[in-house]
Amino acid sequence: MQDSELTHTLSFGLIIHEGTPEDLHTACREARRMRNEVNRLDREGWDWNDIRNTVPERAHHVKNTSQQLVEKALDEIKTYLDHREDGWGRPHPYIHETYPLRMNHGEGYKLSLTDAGDVHFRVTTQPYQYVKGVLRGSPDHLERVKTALQSDGWRVGTAELVSAHDEWRLRVTVTHEHHTVGTPEEADAVVGVDINEDCVALAAMNRDAGDVLDSVVIEYPDIKRVRHEYFTKRKRMQQAGQIAFEDVVRTEEKDFVHDQLHKVSRDVVRWVSQFENPVIVFEDLKDMRDAIDYGTRMNRRLHSLPFAKLRSFITYKAALEGIPEDDVDPEYTSQRCPRTACLHTERANRRRKRFKCKACGFQDHADRKAAVCVAQEWFNDQDGNVPSLDTLPAVEKVRRTASGLCEEADAHGAVFASGVTDAESARPAREARVELKTVASTVD
Ligand SMILES: [Zn+2]
Q: How much distance in Å is there from the Cα of 203 to the middle of ligand 1?
C-alpha cells in the first residue's frame, strides 16, 4: 500500500452579501502591486529572503496573504528559471491586469457551512475588511467542498480569488491527507481503459487466470456533440472578430464538458469498484500524443481534451476508493488482434468502431477490444507474457446522456458481439440485455 496526498481545485462563483466587488478589486490591485514589486526587486538583484521579509511589511494585506502573494510571484520567476533552457520568457516586470489574491484558509479567507446548507465565505480584502456571502457552483464542486469542511481526513487549503470574464471566482484547494492507495503490482483484477472522443471502454481481467471478467463501453455522445457545436460557434466568432463572446462561449463549453466528464468518471469508478482489489490501466498520455495520427489541427484539438481530463478525474476518484492506476505504452493497442494465438497487428484491422482481424477474422467493438489490449499490455509489462485468450464476452454498452440518465444503448450491441464466428462466442442477446440493465441501474 502507498500513502499519498490528494489535492484538487474547486471553482466557485460568489454571491456577495456584505462588501462590494470593488473591495475585491482593490485587494487584487494591491496583489498586483506586490507582484510587480517582487519582480522589480528580483531584477535589482535582491536576495529572495530579503524580498520575503521586505515586501509583506509594506503591504495592505494580512500577513498570511502577503506571504502567499510573495511566494506566488517568486514561483513564477522560479518556473521561468527552471525552463529558461526551453526558451521560456521571463515574467513581465510589470503587469497591468489584477493579480490573483492567494490566501490561506483561516485568516486570509474562511469557509463555513450555514444552517441552510450553503457554504458561507469570508474574504479578508485588507486588514479588518471583509467581503462575505455564499458560494455558488456546480453541485459536484459544492458537494466536495462540503465534504472537505465536514470530514476528518480532509483539509481545506489555500484559495485564489480571480477575476475571470467580468466575474469573481474563488478557486479553493481541498486535500485528502494520508490516503491509502493499493499497489498496482498486488492487484487481483486488471482493468484496461480505452478513452475516446465519444466513449470510454473498460475491460477487466483476472490477475491469476487471465480471463476477461467483464467489459463495458460507456458512451457519451453529448460531449462529442457539444464540443463540435462549440468548436463551430467559436470559429464563427473568431471570423467575426467577437473575441469577448468567444471567451464566454469557451467557459460555457468547458463547464458542460467538465460536468459531464465528472459524471462519466464516476460511472467508470463505480464499475471498476465491483472487482476485488483492482488496478486501472491507461495508455500513457505522452506516448499517445506522439502516436495520434488524426491529421488536422482541428482533430487534434477535439481529441486531446477527454484523454487528459477524463483520466485525471478517474484517477482522482479511484484514489479516493483506494484504487491505484498504472499505464502502458499505447503502441498498437488499437490495431492488434487480442487472440493470443493470433496477435496479428495491422492498421487495416480497425475501421471506425469495428475491429476485424485481417489474419484470423476475429471481430469485435474496436474500443472494447482496445481496452482488452491495454490490460494485455500490462500483463506483458508485469509478467513478460500475456495469458491465453481466445474469445471475449458480448459487448455491453451503456449511455451517459446530458440529462444524467444512463439508458440502454442502441441495438448495435448484438451486432458487435465478438468472436471469430458470431455464434461461437456471443452470448444470447437477451442475457446481454439483462446485464446491461444491471449496469445501468447502478449508474445514476
Ligand atoms: Zn487475429
A: 18
